[in-house]
Amino acid sequence: MRVLVVGSGGREHALCWSLAASPLLTKLWCAPGNPGTAELAENVPIAALDIAALVAFAREQAVDLVVPGPEAPLVAGLADALETAGIRCCGPSAAAAQLEGSKSFAKEICDAAGIPTALWERFEDADAAREFVRRRGAPIVVKADGLAAGKGVVVAATLPEAEAAIAAFMQQRQLGDAGAAVVIEECLAGPEVSVFALCDGAEAILLGTAQDHKRAGEGDTGPNTGGMGAVTPPPGIAPELGQAVLERVIRPTLAEMARRGTPFRGVLYAGLIVTEDGPKLLEFNVRLGDPEAQALLPRLFSDLLPALLAACDGELSAFDLRWRDQACVAVVLAARGYPEAPARGGAIRGLEAAARVPGALIFHAATNRLDGELIADGGRVLTVCGLGPNPGAARQVAYAAVDRIEWPDGFCRRDIGARA
After folding, report:
1. How many percent of the chain have pLDDT more than 90?
2. Would you tell me which of 34, 64, 203, 353 could form a disulfide with 404, CB atoms 3.0–4.6 Å apart?
């Protein structure tokens, strides 16, 4: 198999790491990749959103399978363009990717399929949105309707916070067109958990559960980010939850999408909150999470490549996956100033020493090489993972590896997986 992974972050490094172990693999590329993926695959200087160039490359190189990491190229139609070219893509069509591309579309699917979710309203007028939050009161959640790279959700504890989010999204257009419309929903209480499933349009198999840590600061303080760390399996969450969500959320979603003529293939990620009334859906993502992928994939015992092919070919009903009986904790090292204005260019040393910690894995995200030295080149720069017999032991491994990395401009949360 000749495989092309699309993207340049920690998730894509983890995908390359997992795929590179497959005995079915003959050639692996990553576009555009990073210094970490370069150790496992041939990096190709094509941007993840350059769909025409990606399709042309896949045709020229006789690529058998394309594995998109991020959501933006899927929403922009990468899977559709590859299908037209006769190339398998383990990801949804542009129409099916609206489950992540539009918060209101995802809510409509929930309502049509009977999936429990927070009460919600969609607004295209800022004054009407403000009037609604004044009527409903706080706490309340304001979401940009479109793609916002993890920065389009404000959990407002007060009315002024909610009104400021509406102004930022709808009037100041801090997120561009993504915030032209907003979804405002009730604020649910309870632990958050993410459930991942691999889907073939009609059937789904569980990829696992994880708990992301979204806030930049310890104790879940500070601004929302793309994710500062993850733990799997999530402590305090019943192991049966994953299968329950598969039955009550994932499969009804697949049935509704198929009924609409837009079957969903690829990874579907259900972000949930476990309320007193049971799990309720917060959002869908149409790909593996980041950093959840870095925590989930090291636990996979089975070969990932045939599973992705089965999803493309509609053969998951006869497929199963095996998982290592281990926990994994993933700690994100981010650049000082993230998420607002991350510092770039700082030298990073000590990765070799960190990787020697038993059970540790290091995935690159926003890194680059300059004059032979590894430097930070973005916000979330590295993901340091620890494997162990339980989440507490895995957490110790991850932070032991973090402590061997020398990067004065970096920071991390010290409480990832602390509930363990």
Report:
1. 93
2. 353
The per-residue pLDDT for range 239-282, each reduced to its tens digit, is 899 999 999 999 999 999 999 999 999 999 999 999 998 899 99
- Of 110, 29, 160, nearest in space to 284 by CA: 110
Contact assessment for residue 376 and residue 411, using Cβ atoms and an 8 Å cutoff:
no
SS3 361: strand
pLDDT digits (tens, 9 = 90+) for 270-287: 999 999 988 999 999 999
DSSP run (H or E) holding 381? strand 380-388
Radius of gyration of the chain (CA): 20
Token pair for 229: 């760390």
What Å distances lie between residue 273 and 128, 251, 279, 362, CA to CA? Answer: 27, 18, 6, 29
CA-CA distances (angstroms) from residue 184 to 51, 99, 130, 215?
33, 17, 10, 20
Among 196, 209, 233, 232, CA closest to 311: 196
Q: Which residues neighbour 58 within 8 Å (Cβ) at sequence distance 6 or greater? A: 4, 66, 82, 85, 87
Cα separation, 384 vs 414, in Å, equals: 12
CATH topology classification for 192-318: D-amino Acid Aminotransferase; Chain A, domain 1 (3.30.470)
Three-state DSSP class for residue 15: helix
What's the rounded Cα separation, in Å, for the pair 229 and 330? 5
Residue 333 DSSP symbol: E
Residues in the chain with pLDDT values less than 50: none
DSSP structure string for 68-114 = E-SSHHHHTTHHHHHHHTT-EESS--TTTTHHHH-HHHHHHHHHHHT
CA geometry: angle 101, 103, 107, nearest 5 deg: 125
2-89 architecture in CATH? 3-Layer(aba) Sandwich (3.40)
β-pairing verdict for 65-68 and 88-89: parallel
Distance CA 267, CA 207 (A): 9
Q: At what angle do helices 10-19 and 304-313 cross, to 10 degrees?
A: 100
- Three-class SS state of 324: coil
**327-411 has CATH 3.90.600.10 classification:** yes
Q: Per CATH, is 125-180 categorized as 3.40.50.11600?
A: no
